[in-house]
Amino acid sequence: MKKSTLFTIVFIGSLLVMACNNKKLTEVVEVPLPASDDKITIGLPEDARADAGAFSLVKLPNTYDAFGPSIGTLAMENHYSKHYLTYTNNLNKLIAADQALVDVSIEDILKKVDMNNADLKNNAGGYYNHTLFFENLAPVSKVLPKDTLAAAINRDFGSFTLFKTMFTDAAENQFGSGWAWLVVDKTGKLQITSTSNQENPLMPKQVITGTPILNIDVWEHAYYLDYQYKRKRYIDNYFNIINWKKVNERYLEALKNKKP
Ligand code: MN3
Fold it and tell me: How many whole angstroms separate alpha carbon 175 and alpha carbon 72?
């Protein structure tokens, strides 16, 4: 073989190696997006079922598409049938493995949880927090609280508008993942607070403890599909899908449980 031919082969070979290396460096993992004519199949809430165990999913008060545009169909389906279901199954596994947790109410599990027990804290919290959240939803309406709760909101916050501002601030300013809450404290007064990750006001070592009657999930999985980073808009729109009748029932129940 002529020297020049060998040189040419080596040169071309080097170029190919360089090209491959460059390709590797700039390679992007493509996530296939559904084509516009592809159908995304959304199941029904009742298709999501927890494995056999102590706790099951609370029934969603409507189909996944009933809460738009406040929360879109896909976000609702993911949240209910994936996130909530996972917390529920994980909690059931923990209970099955610990005799001390069998036949204990979720509230009592939370009140007595060892805050260093991350598995139980996260999954019992995740189960309880989402159960309250989903059960308090109603299809879009502009209904405001009435009855006893409306009077208590005026008494403890000055007005519904002031309450809404305080609740919104708590939810917006919760750093990272977490929840904002409306709770009834041990004196029967309404208070607003926020918690991180899946903690809640029933657990030990919280700034404000009490019986939760309303909450909002501000983990990104709750709003990112619909709102991207615009958490404030999500919180504003959440106020259109609150079942205040249900929240009022919770308020009355919390007061009743305070009686000796
Ligand atoms: Mn969530």
Answer: 24
Domains annotated for the chain, with CATH where assigned, are 71-260 (3.55.40.20)
What's the 227 CA to ligand 1 centre distance in angstroms? 15
Centre of ligand 1 to C-alpha 28, Å, is 30
Q: Give me ligand 1 centre to Cα 82, in Å.
A: 10
Q: What is the pLDDT of residue 25?
A: 46
Q: How far is the CA of 220 from the centre of ligand 1 (A)?
A: 8
Q: Are 213 and 202 in contact (CB under 8 A)?
A: no
The mean pLDDT value of the chain amounts to: 89
Report residue 44 as tokens: 């029904």
pTM, to two decimals = 0.84
> For residue 209, how many other CB atoms are within 10 A of its CB?
18
Tens digit of each residue's pLDDT (9 = 90 or more) over 128-149: 999 999 999 999 776 789 889 9
Phi, psi of 33 (to 5 degrees): -100, 145
- Residues with C-beta atoms within 5 A of ion ligand 1: 83, 217, 219, 222
